[in-house]
Design brief:
Elements (H helix, E strand, L loop, with lengths): L2 H13 L2 H8 L3 H15 L4 E4 L4 E4 L1 H26 L5 E4 L2 H7 L4 H6 L6 E4 L3 H9 L5 E6 L8 E15 L10 E2 L8 E5 L4 H12 L5 E6 L2 H9 L4 E5 L10 E5 L6 E9 L6 H16 L1
Parallel strand pairs: 3-4, 3-5, 7-11, 8-9, 8-10
Antiparallel strand pairs: 1-2, 5-12, 6-10, 6-11, 6-12
Helix pairs in contact: 1-2, 1-3, 1-4, 2-3
C-alpha cells in the first residue's frame, strides 16, 4: 500500500466507478482494482460492494470511515510538500486580513524595517475566515487573524495579543450622532451597511441581531472598508465596525455599545502546530508579540 493507492481509494469513494477513476489518473482499471485489494487486505475490512444487478458500486460503512482518515493523510501530505518546498526560503508567506493590514500592521513596520524583515514578507490579503483555512491547508506560514473568541482549532497554534471593541459608526449628520453610546436593540429601525461574509464583522453582527431578535435592514454589503465608511459618511446608513478601523481624525462618529454580552475583535498570531518556525519566522513572531505587549 502506498500514497497512490490512497489517492485511488479516495477518488473511488467520490466516483464509485473503477473506469472513471482509472481515466482520472490515466492508468488501467486493473491498477485501481489491485490498489483497492491491497487496502482491504491491509485493514482487513470490505470497503466496497459490487451490485452486479444494477452495475453499481456501493461504499460500505467501513469504506466511508476509512476515507475520513485518508482525506486527512492526503491533506497532510499536500501540506508537507508545500512546506518542504519553502523550508529553505527566506520568504515568509504572511496573511494579513484587510482591516488588520490597514489599521494595525503599519505601527509594527518600523520595527520590522529596523530588523531588515520587511523584504522577507510576502503578504496575502483576504478575510479572517478564509485566512484560517489557507493556514490550515499550508498555503501560508503565519497570519494575523481576527476572531470573536480565542482560536481553538486542533491544527492551529494561536496567541491572542490584542482585543478591541466593536462600535456603531454613524455620519455626523445622522440623528444618533450626538449620542456617546447606544444599545444594539435600539438599532432595529436603522439602515445598515455591512462587510461581507469573509469578515469576522459579519459573524459578530449577525450574532447580535439574533441575540436581539431582529432582521436588520441591510442596504449595502461590501468587502471594502473604505467604501463602507464613505457611504456612512454620506449618511446612507450606519455600520458595525471595530474601533481600530475608525481613527479619531476621520469625519465619523463612533458610538459605544452598552450591551453586557457583546463580541470583541481579537487579533491573534497564528500558525500550524506542526509547522517548524525558521529563524526569520521566529524573529517576526518575537517582534509582533513584543510590540503588542508594549502598547
Amino acid at each position: 500500500m502506498n500514497i497512490k493507492d490512497l489517492k485511488y481509494f479516495h477518488q473511488l469513494i467520490k466516483d464509485k466507478n473503477f473506469s472513471k477513476v482509472a481515466a482520472h489518473f490515466s492508468v488501467s482499471q486493473p491498477t485501481i482494482t489491485l490498489a483497492i485489494k491491497r487496502i482491504e487486505k491491509k485493514f482487513g475490512s470490505r470497503l466496497f460492494i459490487r451490485d452486479q444487478s444494477h452495475h453499481e458500486l456501493q461504499v460500505t460503512a467501513s469504506g466511508y470511515q476509512l476515507d475520513e482518515h485518508i482525506q486527512q493523510v492526503l491533506n497532510e501530505m499536500a501540506t508537507a510538500q508545500k512546506e518542504l518546498q519553502r523550508i529553505n526560503s527566506t520568504k515568509i508567506l504572511f496573511g494579513l486580513p484587510p482591516i488588520i493590514g490597514t489599521y494595525y500592521f503599519p505601527a509594527v513596520t518600523p520595527a520590522l524595517l529596523r530588523q531588515g524583515l520587511m523584504k522577507n514578507l510576502e503578504t496575502f490579503e483576504t478575510g479572517s475566515k478564509d485566512m484560517l483555512q489557507l493556514l490550515i491547508k499550508g498555503s501560508l506560514d503565519l497570519a494575523l487573524i481576527a476572531s470573536m473568541q480565542p482560536i481553538e482549532q486542533h491544527q492551529i497554534m494561536a496567541q491572542v495579543f490584542k482585543s478591541y471593541d466593536f462600535k456603531i459608526i454613524v455620519s455626523p449628520k445622522h440623528h444618533l450622532a450626538q449620542q456617546p453610546k447606544i444599545a444594539f436593540k435600539d438599532l432595529k429601525k436603522e439602515s445598515f451597511i455591512v462587510l461581507n461574509e469573509g469578515f469576522i464583522h459579519n459573524t459578530a453582527f449577525k450574532r447580535l441581531c439574533r441575540q436581539h431578535d431582529f432582521q436588520p435592514n441591510v442596504v449595502y454589503q461590501t468587502s471594502d472598508v473604505h467604501v463602507l465608511k464613505a457611504m456612512v459618511k454620506e449618511n446612507i446608513g450606519i455600520a458595525f465596525l471595530t474601533e481600530i478601523a475608525v481613527p479619531a481624525n476621520e469625519e465619523l462618529v463612533s458610538l459605544a455599545l452598552v450591551d453586557p454580552q457583546q463580541p470583541h475583535f481579537l487579533i491573534s498570531l497564528a500558525y500550524r502546530k506542526n509547522h517548524h518556525l525558521g529563524e526569520i519566522q521566529q524573529k517576526l513572531t518575537k517582534i509582533l508579540t513584543s510590540k503588542a505587549q508594549q502598547e
